[in-house]
Amino acid sequence: MRDLRNYKVKAPGPVMLAGRFVTLEPYQRDAHLNALWTALGGVDAINELLRYFPQDAFVEPGAFGDWLEATARDFGWVTLVFRENASGRIVGMASYMRPEPKNGVVEVGSVAHGPDVKRSPLTTEVHYLMARHVFEDLGYRRYEWKCHNENEPSKRAAVRYGFSFEGIFRQHMISKGANRDTAWFSMIDSEWPLLKQAFEAWLAPENFGPDGTQRRRLEDIRTEISEGTAA
Hints:
The chain contains 7 helices and 8 strands, in the order E-E-H-H-H-E-E-E-H-E-H-E-E-H-H. The radius of gyration is 18 Å and the shape is globular. Helices cover 36% and strands 28% of the residues. The protein starts with 16 loop residues before the first strand and ends with a helix. An 8-stranded mixed beta sheet has the order 1-2-3-4-5-6-8-7, sandwiched between helices. It has 231 residues and is of the alpha+beta class.
């Protein structure tokens, strides 16, 4: 059994994470707010995109910016925005949330991918980079993903990225005046080497055809690695 008597890590802080498709930057209101608001659809689309977030609807970017600042000030969230390397555009965001350095636990949440990059290599690379930072740079033991149990796309994404489903917390909270049951997922440090290998094999240039279509699914690559049948 691992001796954890001297285990010690720090809470996540603002960080820049660079990949082949995307660079993650610490959110700064002056530099990012208007571009992020636009990337998520502006007033016509942002509230539908964030329908499972617990906050009230936004009618203008200032309120959205106030909410992002409040999550950092009041709860210690670290929000990162996604800059597409090819175009330089801001295309989404995610946050490190609810850090517990004493236990080596942190959650990824407030995930919002702009419509132009959903289900793309860029979004997969985002979650690879964020997980790698948690396990390799910060030394955390557990990385969590939680979502409204009615949010089927979020649950599918968690499984695709390699998080393990742990169960439903019934009547976990009241969100927007209604009950929320919360689905919990996690990955842990002992699983990361296999997950990392699968992410990197999926993201490799040779996994994509001339039209950008993936040759092998991320889930299939993980299975091949775990079974020792990977090419």
